[in-house]
Amino acid sequence: MSVTVRVPAKVNVQLAVGAARPDGFHDLANVFLAVGLYDEVTVTEADELRVTCSGPDAAQVPLDRTNLAARAALALAERYGRDARVHLHIAKDIPVAGGMAGGSADGAGALLACDALWGTGASRDELLGICAELGSDVPFSLVGGAALGTGRGERLRPLEVGGAFHWVFAVADGGLSTPAVYAEFDRLTAQADVPEPAASEDLLTALAKGDVHALAAALSNDLQPAALSLRPSLAATLAAGRAAGALAALVSGSGPTTAFLAPDAAAATEIARTLQTSGTCRTTRAAASPAPGATLL
Ligand code: C5P
């Protein structure tokens, strides 16, 4: 028997970052929006825990127990007294180490798939608790849609979205390490008075109304200066997307994927085509939001 779960990528339409906490994490006001790019995680009973991955960027995905899908299976098995002897296969379509929560998606997908395979009877809150232990972005991968994440980003409040938004994502060569980007944020803000992170009311209203122009005006990412400092070439990608007609451009999460908000689906296709030939990124993807969270297929 096998179970397959489909899980979306995310873009952060606001990422407000506070000062480093004693535990090294940062308090956030993190407005997540799930976008229609998906990984699929299939779990099958096996003789031992094994992870495989397919897709154009599969070679960049670790297949050992650092993979969040493996960690999710082990965490659920331990909690409910099961044996994590399963084969987890990841059909990967989300950019790897790109700031789009691809690893978190695989963790949430594996958790939901193993839960269905084993029939643990775990409640939604119990699953969300395991997600939060696996990583700050994993709970959102389970719930999808749009949500405000506070704390490390793991405490979620669902948000209303009044319409579809159309995005283009420019995938860079190579990934960026999330801890390295946060460390650069700390370095860049060492002399500054970092305010408490707070969600932007203008942004939440724009989302709720489905108003693309208001959303474009309100997009922000406090990690963007740090990502640009580590990867200065991203400035040219952002400029190329703006010149191609994007209403707004920003680094997605900790990067290096960059996100471009388009006025409509046709414009997104055109911006993707122009960016693709600009020589400022490896490849581009167009996708709409919001998208549902982890879903059993
Ligand atoms: O929670 P997760 O494992 O995804 O976090 C990866 C890294 O990102 C952490 O080790 C930390 O360096 C950084 N981080 C942070 N503050 C957050 C979330 C992540 O500093 N709220």
UniProtKB/TrEMBL annotation:
<comment type="similarity">
    <text>Belongs to the GHMP kinase family. IspE subfamily.</text>
</comment>
<feature type="binding site">
    <location>
        <begin position="95"/>
        <end position="105"/>
    </location>
    <ligand>
        <name>ATP</name>
    </ligand>
</feature>
<dbReference type="InterPro" id="IPR004424">
    <property type="entry name" value="IspE"/>
</dbReference>
<dbReference type="InterPro" id="IPR020568">
    <property type="entry name" value="Ribosomal_Su5_D2-typ_SF"/>
</dbReference>
<feature type="domain" description="GHMP kinase C-terminal">
    <location>
        <begin position="204"/>
        <end position="277"/>
    </location>
</feature>
<comment type="pathway">
    <text>Isoprenoid biosynthesis; isopentenyl diphosphate biosynthesis via DXP pathway; isopentenyl diphosphate from 1-deoxy-D-xylulose 5-phosphate: step 3/6.</text>
</comment>
<keyword id="KW-0418">Kinase</keyword>
<dbReference type="InterPro" id="IPR006204">
    <property type="entry name" value="GHMP_kinase_N_dom"/>
</dbReference>
<feature type="active site">
    <location>
        <position position="137"/>
    </location>
</feature>
<dbReference type="GO" id="GO:0016301">
    <property type="term" value="F:kinase activity"/>
</dbReference>
<feature type="active site">
    <location>
        <position position="10"/>
    </location>
</feature>
<feature type="domain" description="GHMP kinase N-terminal">
    <location>
        <begin position="67"/>
        <end position="145"/>
    </location>
</feature>
<comment type="function">
    <text>Catalyzes the phosphorylation of the position 2 hydroxy group of 4-diphosphocytidyl-2C-methyl-D-erythritol.</text>
</comment>
<keyword id="KW-0547">Nucleotide-binding</keyword>
<protein>
    <recommendedName>
        <fullName>4-diphosphocytidyl-2-C-methyl-D-erythritol kinase</fullName>
        <ecNumber>2.7.1.148</ecNumber>
    </recommendedName>
</protein>
<dbReference type="InterPro" id="IPR036554">
    <property type="entry name" value="GHMP_kinase_C_sf"/>
</dbReference>
<dbReference type="Pfam" id="PF00288">
    <property type="entry name" value="GHMP_kinases_N"/>
</dbReference>
<keyword id="KW-0067">ATP-binding</keyword>
<dbReference type="InterPro" id="IPR013750">
    <property type="entry name" value="GHMP_kinase_C_dom"/>
</dbReference>
<dbReference type="Pfam" id="PF08544">
    <property type="entry name" value="GHMP_kinases_C"/>
</dbReference>
<keyword id="KW-0808">Transferase</keyword>
<dbReference type="InterPro" id="IPR014721">
    <property type="entry name" value="Ribsml_uS5_D2-typ_fold_subgr"/>
</dbReference>
<keyword id="KW-0414">Isoprene biosynthesis</keyword>
